[in-house]
Design brief:
Helices cover 7% and strands 40% of the residues. It is globular, with a radius of gyration of 16 Å. It is mainly beta. It has a single domain, classed as Jelly Rolls. The strands form 3 sheets. It has a 6-stranded antiparallel beta sheet, with no helix packed on it.
Length: 181
């Protein structure tokens, strides 16, 4: 497993070692010990989630203000453009974002620590998106920042207007959002 820091130092791209042969491929998608060593923290995951979405679906930008979740995300079928936004007010990278394509061929994962909002848009006909979380889902603490907040100015690779849930359409601007200190 290899980890690469992004332009926001706490967010990592995780690349597993892939073993390919004439039968297909094999890789270890998660190893607790290696993961904690490469990110330099002791993270324990408590929940695994799976979402299936069609082309153009945009989910986010989500976070939990209490019971905050670190997320380790990956795509097992299809492709997405995945985004993490730093919403830690005391951080030198507050309001900045990192985006990466995750797909079934590159097998990359993205580590999004506590203190970040997260979202993605589906680039392929459909995508199966898996993620581990470091705390349980708590809908009463869930918050949403508008995916198109001009202050954040995410460069989403969109060909058409994205399909967004009614809940996500109510996302607030970063300047009006409850964020981490």
């Amino acid at each position: 497993m290899k980890a690469t820091k992004t332009s926001i130092p706490d967010v990592f791209i995780i690349e597993p070692i892939i073993y390919n042969d004439n039968r297909g491929f094999f890789f270890e998608s998660f190893n607790q010990k290696q993961f904690n060593e490469i990110i330099g923290q002791n993270i324990q995951f408590v929940q695994d989630n799976h979402s299936h979405s069609a082309r153009g679906v945009l989910r986010g930008l989500h976070y939990q203000i209490e019971q905050p979740q670190g997320k380790l995300v990956r795509v097992v079928r299809g492709a997405v453009f995945d985004v993490a936004v730093d919403i830690r007010r005391s951080s030198p990278t507050f309001g900045q974002w990192v985006g990466i394509e995750l797909n079934e061929n590159n097998h990359h994962q993205l580590w999004i620590p506590i203190g970040f909002a997260h979202g993605f848009v589906v680039l392929s006909d459909s995508a199966d998106f898996l993620y581990k979380t470091s705390d349980y889902y708590a809908p009463e603490f869930e918050r949403c920042i508008a995916w198109d907040d001009p202050e954040i100015d995410i460069k989403w690779p969109l060909e058409v207007q994205p399909l967004i849930s009614a809940k996500d359409k109510l996302g607030s601007l970063l300047s009006d959002s409850e964020v981490f200190s």
